[in-house]
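Checklist before submission:
- one chain only
- standard amino acids only
- sequence pasted in full

Submission:
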Amino acid sequence: MEIEGFSFPTELYYHPDHTWAKLEGDRVRVGITPYAVQLAGEISVLTLRPIGKEVMIGGTIATLESNKWVGPLKCPVSGKIVESNLELEKNLGKLLEDSYGEGWISILEPIDLEEDLGQLIYGEVAVRDWMLLEMKGKGSA
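Returned file contents:
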C-alpha cells in the first residue's frame, strides 16, 4: 500500500515509532519504515544490538545517527536477537533503498508474540489512518 509516496506492506505489523515486524515462521524480522528513514535525514551510523541479546517491545533494537537525529530504534516485538544484518553497517543506503528487503535490521526469536502483535498497528485501514495522522502532525517528509 502506498501512502503519500511511501510504501507500507499490508502484511507487516508496525510499531508507533516506525519500526516494523514481519512474521517468518517462528521468527520475526524487524526493520524501520522508509518514512522514518526519510525523516531522519542522511544516516551516518547504525549500531546494531548483539546476537543473543533479549530486547523487549519498545526497547532499543539499534541506534541510529543522522544529520537530523540521534536515538534508538524501538523494537516492535519482544525477543532474543538471533541474527543481525551486519551488511547494513557497511551499506546504510539499504535502509532507504530497500527498507523492507535488504534493509532489515534484525531477526528475533519472539518471547510473547501474540501479546506483542496486539499492541502493534496492523491492517490497511489502521496503517493508513495512523500514517496520515503522523504525516499531518510532522508535515510530509
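Reviewer check: The first strand starts at residue 2 and ends at 3.
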